[in-house]
Amino acid sequence: MSNKKQIIVFNTKEMLVGAAQEQSNKVDQNYQQSTYLYFIARYFVSVFESRYGVIPVQVWNEYRNALDHFFRHQTNNSSKQTGNADGNIPRQLLKMEGHIQRAALDIMKIHCHRTKDSVAQVKNNFKPEVLQLVDNGKFYTDLITETNRAEGLFEKAKIYDNNLGETARLDKEVLNKYLEAVFAFDELKIELINKAADLEVANNNYNSIHDNASKGSTKHHYFIHFTFYIFWSIFISFCTLMWNEQLEPVYKKVFSNLVADNHKAVLGNLGISTKQLPDINYS
Question: 82: which strand partners?
Fold first, then answer.
């Protein structure tokens, strides 16, 4: 599936930030930051919904809270209460910005987690030998490398976010760190989408090769056993023939002589002459 069908309008963080800044410049100064944040949040919500068919409930909750502060700003003289040190931005609008930024952070976190799950699913569904068949092994190498890079960026963003605590609602740097992580993961997701057909072809080729090798091994196994039984049967038949025709008469003659000599020796020890006894056939 092509990038355009996945609503991938922005391929880099810089492209998205530039578009968001351009949009925010069109509104009143009091609403510029909230418009900037909402543009980013709305973009990732749209992409997420197109891929997975849902909008995370926590994002809706942040939107609802932001809307609540907006109407508080519009009523009850709340617009006269400022919330920043410069006294330029009304308090309720500042709180609204915090909820919209949290919505943006939440949807980017969810994006990262879902893409991690997608990579894990690919690794579970396809053996490493199959993944290495795609693009002569380059796909598998890049998948491992880019996954590690994206996870590293995501980990740094989460650590920075946790250190900030509640102040992350108004911190621009934490937004940039999550943007870096989510675009790294988005590259991975797009690559998985574009390589879906190649993965299926590689898997079918691998299974075909494996099945043919297994069948060949089974045939070889049966051939070896069949050949062994044939030669073993011939050998037993040959030994039986040799015994009956040549070995058995010789054995009987030797055994008869040994028994006779032993018998005469015993009689001699008893003082009995063998001449007094009739001849005995020991065969």
Answer: 90
Tally of CB atoms within 10 A around 101: 26
Instruction: Dig out the tokens for 165 from the structure.
Output: 């605590």
Residue 281 lies in a domain: no
Reported as a single tens digit per residue, the pLDDT across 218-267 is 555 555 665 666 766 776 676 666 656 665 665 566 556 655 555 555 54
Would residue 7 be called left, alpha or beta, if left means φ above 0 and alpha means ψ between -120 and 50 degrees?
Answer: left
Task: List C-alpha distances in Å: 258 to 199, 225, 243, 268, 282.
Answer: 81, 43, 20, 15, 9
Q: Give the domain-ending residue among 194, 218, 246.
A: 194
Radius of gyration, alpha carbons of the chain: 44
Of 167, 194, 221, the position where a domain reaches its end is 194
DSSP 26: T
- List, in sequence order, the alpha helices (H) in 165-195: 172-194
| DSSP element (H, E) containing 64 | helix 57-74
For the record, the structure tokens of 145 come out as: 């490398």
Do 127 and 257 share a domain, yes or no? no
Q: What is the pLDDT of residue 202?
A: 85
Whether 86 shows a pLDDT value over 70: the answer reads: no
Tell me the residue range of the domain where 43 lies: 4-194
Question: Between the CA atoms of 197, 198, 203 and 206, what dihedral angle is there, to the nearest 10 degrees?
Answer: 150
pLDDT value at residue 211: 58
Mean pLDDT: which of 2-16, 136-150, 161-175 is highest? 136-150
Specify the 3-state DSSP secondary structure of 255.
helix
How many domains is the chain built from? 2
Q: How many CB atoms lie within 10 A of CB 23?
A: 15
pLDDT score of 88: 73
Tokens in use for 73?
A: 């700003």
Amino acid at 187: E
What is d(CA 93, CA 87) in angstroms, rounded to the nearest whole number? 12
Q: Which two tokens stand for residue 216?
A: 């060949």
